[in-house]
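Quick one:
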Amino acid sequence: MSEEKKRGFFKRLVDGLAKTRNSIKEGIDNVFSGFSKIDEDFYEELEEILIMADIGVKTTENIMESLREKVKEQKIKEPSECKELLINSIKEQMHVDENAYDFENQKSIILLIGVNGVGKTTTTGKLAGQYKSDGKKVLLCAADTFRAAAIEQLTEWSKRANVDIISTYEGADPAAVVFDAISAAKARKTDILLCDTAGRLHNKKNLMEELKKINRIIEKEYPEAHKETFIVLDGTTGQNALNQAKQFSEVTNINGIILTKLDGTAKGGIAIAIQSELNIPVKFIGVGEKIEDLQKFDADSFVNALFE
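Output:
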């Protein structure tokens, strides 16, 4: 990526995280300027600010523990000298082993899961647009057959991104649509097949059972493809997003997280909590409406943007 493009990305990130940054930065700056020494009150005040930004109790405890160790080791006495250490302690919490995007350079099928209303269909469309502009051959699969609106919305995205879509009628079997999409992906030598799935089922059918069925079809019909399962979470819901990720990860193996709507919330710290607690990498974050506002997640850039 060119330097200019990187700067543009970072500016969008900084702008998109404005609400979160205002809540964290102001509080933290006040602590650093309001305390003349590093004591228990100083640490407690910092801890409270991090928890309020939805970084989560467990993750905050880890950050504070790391900060205390650094202060002790480096014999730091001035609160103002702690800021860089705090930023580094936050970054440490976010480094998970597997934060790769290797799937983009091989034949892949990407399954997008999550509850309704998190921006799953829009995210699927944005990814299609990005991969298409990267020169990839992309195919969309409308496997959320329980909402006519989802099929229509994804069809609209397919036109906007100029990519093909495999869809069917409302109420059809989602696994059957995925089966058809796999056949089409093979025949058309598709690079990336993106499948939008249901977030809730209208009848007695169990959503998790439906996901297992889709997974079985993929394993049987498309074993040669690299499979990624991304859970899409709404950043504005904070800790609730973390709970959703936990529930889904109990029934299916999640490779990555996509956090949407971070521009509309002061709870952007949830990205730190999720990656730290679940040890699942955040792969993309949404910081606005445009296609390019869905960005690849980089822990260092994210934390830098919070303190910019």
